[in-house]
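User: My collaborator sent over this chain with a note saying "see what the structure looks like." That's all I know about it. Can you take a look?
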Amino acid sequence: MKLIIAILRDVDNDPVSHALTEEKFRVTCIASTGGFLRRGQSTLLAGVEDDQVEQALGIIRKEVSQTENSDTRRAVLFVVNVDQFIQF
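Assistant: Without extra context I'll predict from the sequence alone. Here is the result:
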C-alpha cells in the first residue's frame, strides 16, 4: 500500500478531490500554507493499493489546472510506502 501526499493550490483542491472520489479513492484534505507569499494550499492524503498508484497520479495530473507561467509549480506529489493501514 502507498500513501500519496499531494500539495496543491487551493483552486485545484475541489476538482482533484472530486475526481479521485468519483473513482472510489478515499481522500483527506488538510489546509496548509507555504511557498512565496504564503499562498493558500491544500494537502491531500490518499491511501491507495500499489496497483492503483498510476491511476491516482493520472487523475491528479489531469485535474490540476494549467498556469500562465510554465515555471510555476502546480503540485508537489509524494508517494510513500505504508507498512500498515488500520481503519475503525
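A starting point for your reply to your collaborator: The beta strands are 2-9, 28-34, 39-48, 75-81.
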